[in-house]
Amino acid sequence: MELRHLRYFVTLAEELHFGKAAERLHIAQPPLSQQIRQLEKELGFELFYRTKRNVRLTEAGQVFLGEVQQIMRQLQQAIQVGRQTSRGEIGQLVVGFVSSAAYNILPTILRTFRSHVPGVSIELHELTTDQQLKWLREGRMDVGFLRPPVEDNKFSCETIFQEPLMVALPEAHLLANQSDIYWRSLANEPFILFPRILAPGLYDLIISLCQQAGFSPKVVQEAIQMQTIVSLVAAEMGIAIVPASLQNLQRIGVVYKTLQEPSPKVGLVADVGVAIAMIWRKNETSPTVLRLVEIVKQTAQQW
What we know:
It is a single chain. The protein is of the alpha/beta class and 303 residues long. It contains nine helices and 13 strands. Strands 4-3-5-13-6 form a five-stranded mixed sheet, sandwiched between helices. A four-stranded mixed sheet has the order 8-12-7-11, with helices on one face. α7 (200-212) links the parallel β9 (190-193) and β10 (218-222). The two termini are 57 Å apart. The model is unreliable at 263-273 (pLDDT under 50).
């Protein structure tokens, strides 16, 4: 039994006329009659009562028709789902992001992606850069948004956003009333920083800029998440160098100031500065993952 046999049967059951059914199927009447006979022989029961004047379904044929119509609907649904999957329009993605991405690129990416492919569900995980690399290697994650650089050649990595650094100060700090802060004026300040392993690119940039200003930062406290670092600044435990988008984190007791000399603009520090990169497996074949990558690249051109 082949799919065409079922299609011929349904068409004849709808028309109850061999000539009209054959015309709809774009075949001659004798081959249609032959195909129906073959189907009945394989099934072991008659589907139609035939006379010279009319054709009608047998009782078994009526029951069989209902089942076949259901099969055909399921088949059409399967075809539609297959096409959507091949275009990356349905499925599920696991996406990782560094905490600061929630204050700049992530909301725009999610809105844009959902507007283009609403059938794909996204499972989000807030992870540090090193955690995202681990998850990607283990196959637990599809796409990540992290701090470059990434030196593993198993991944594709593309910078999609960059921004300057700012200094977060307790609002009662002596420098809080100045419009701009020079790096050298931070030489004797207690720094709150994250461990280097979490985002070596950003960590090394901060240390390098401090050294260019003539000092090495005195780190008094480490924290994993940017939100925690800002909270510690509010508690007057020290100051912190943070991406400019952290200003969007409304935290009472903290003020953000622009930094001057040496310039922390990412464009002046190759591609290892205050950037966020998108990362995915280099051998990725999933249409859904590749669709997200395509949409993010298009969206990034507008920033």
